[in-house]
Write a structure and sequence with these properties.
Layout: H1 2-22, E1 40-44, E2 51-53, E3 57-61, H2 62-78, H3 82-98, H4 110-136, H5 143-161, H6 166-178, H7 189-200
Parallel strand pairs: 1-3
Antiparallel strand pairs: 2-3
Length: 210
């Protein structure tokens, strides 16, 4: 499931990047490491909830992919609120953090697949934002600013590639539950969610790239 999903995420990005290049913007292509300037997108056998990027590679852990897919399934099955939703999502996160979850690709319903694809696209495009900024601007600024810019890049990429914004909320909700203390390398999920929501509405965000 994740292979074809990530292939489509890369293909959509490359279509948008091709248009951007025609308009004078120098965007890297994704998923094609042998192409000039290409960035490979890979899932890795890692139970941690993690993603990373370099100038030539984006890596998404199985733990994070399974968290997003499982969260999408629970949200669709329960309506996304209430005691049943909270209990099932907390149980899912517990198994992932303990490493006791099933690492095989889950089979999702149509609605859950749609939501999971949106969430994974946001994560992939966030990391691609880092690769673009690292090459073009050396990711200038403090870490909070850098992460916010990558989130804004991801939101804009999702709009250009036709992904629904519902997955953005799922990502931040899942991360808030799984890592409530946050990361020393990232601003709080509350801050990130607010900026991403505003970017999705097309608001002007002072201090961040558009």
């Amino acid at each position: 499931m994740f292979g074809p999903m990530m292939d489509e995420i890369a293909d959509r990005f490359n279509q948008a990047a091709s248009v951007a290049r025609q308009n004078g913007f120098d965007f890297d292509y994704a998923g094609h490491p042998d192409a000039p300037g290409g960035v490979s997108i890979q899932s890795c056998a890692d139970g941690r909830i993690a993603a990373s990027a370099s100038t030539s590679q984006v890596r998404i852990s199985d733990g994070l992919l399974l968290l997003l897919a499982g969260s999408a399934e629970v949200r669709i099955a329960t309506g996304g609120s209430g005691d049943e939703f909270n209990a099932k999502l907390d149980a899912l996160i517990k198994t992932i953090l303990e490493g006791s979850h099933d690492r095989s690709d889950p089979e999702l319903s149509g609605d859950a697949m749609y939501l999971a694809s949106s969430a994974v696209a946001f994560v992939v495009y966030h990391e691609l934002g880092h690769t673009q900024m690292a090459r073009l601007t050396a990711e200038a600024g403090d870490q909070t600013s850098v992460e916010m810019k990558a989130d804004i890049f991801a939101v804009h990429a999702m709009k250009e590639t036709g992904y629904d914004m519902s997955g953005v909320d799922l990502v931040f909700d899942a991360l808030q539950r799984a890592v409530p203390s946050g990361s020393m390398n990232h601003p709080s999920t509350t801050e990130r969610a607010e900026i991403a929501l505003r970017a999705g509405r097309g608001e002007t965000l002072d201090g961040f790239m558009e």
